[in-house]
């Protein structure tokens, strides 16, 4: 049994998630609870803490390289958890998935090219595309109101990929924020279309460890050839084990020519030095903290149930049942509040800070993204606040 009950006090620490409230809402909002940025309100796995403390006492903090032990830990995790075979020579380290994606955009696209993304989607995809001078081609996900499920508009995707200016697609698997775990069939269809139109597929799989029963995550590379070699997969231990501050991620690039071009872009950026504690933490996480992670999955399942119960008894809160990730996407459009009014309602009345849906694209207007990676009583407190605030609207 690990500790998923202690609620670390992160307000007024170095936590960016909690600082956001201070910066954005200003004075008088010290009681607002952060349920936004995707890191976790749990104390870290003890195996990882021990490894870091040992390393801090023992090591010298010069420039590092990734040892065989590091690659073995990554390869072992991917094989055990995902049935993914990965040759260590295909792994490229960086200090984050977004830095690695930005490196890939520099390597494989030119300003003025078009890139396909699927909104509503993790907003740094938009920033990365824009920052690299790319035009966004939005293959908006289809939301079925009745089933509250998102699907891909494949005809639209085909047409977008066929555009000769389109050189890349950035896929979120599983999808943040809508929580879809793409099935193997869906992934094959995406892969087939990208191959047919000679579009490079960049697959962000940072949430891949968070599938739920009935929704096993297929990592793109696990589809085998020709899929595995046509794509670059971006992974990290940082969501899985809450290590974002330690800066560590692993991209899988099986095609040698793609690797060469990626390496040139990475060298030109010059920022691919690995973090000493990132390496230490990744090895400890993948080798020694699997039991912690399995227990975490149970806590997340409990929290999903708490939120689902709340949604059942509050008809204005429609839950898009997540198939994966530790995030949930709730549809509040029945409240009839415009974006500013909904923001005001959350921050000033409910005293809760979710990520507002519109951040992920216009398709997300009226939705909120809830971070479920917190001790259950914290989630219950947030929902009680929401209930009280809803009552003030006569709901
Ligand atoms: C889909 C997705 N990709 C990337 C990231 C960020 O990864 P990193 O901190 O490794 O850049 C996040 C963090 O929330 C995410 O949800």
UniProtKB/TrEMBL annotation:
Keywords noted in UniProt: Aminotransferase, Lyase, Pyridoxal phosphate, Transferase
Protein species of origin: Bifidobacterium anseris
InterPro entries linked to this entry: Aminotransferase_I/II_large, C-S_lyase_PatB-like, Class-II_PLP-Dep_Aminotrans, PyrdxlP-dep_Trfase, PyrdxlP-dep_Trfase_major, PyrdxlP-dep_Trfase_small
Family from the record: Belongs to the class-II pyridoxal-phosphate-dependent aminotransferase family. MalY/PatB cystathionine beta-lyase subfamily.
Known cofactor(s): pyridoxal 5'-phosphate
Name of protein: cysteine-S-conjugate beta-lyase
Domain (Aminotransferase class I/classII large): residue spans on this chain: 31-386
Name of the top EC class for this enzyme: lyase
Domain of life: Bacteria
Pfam families: Aminotran_1_2 (PF00155)
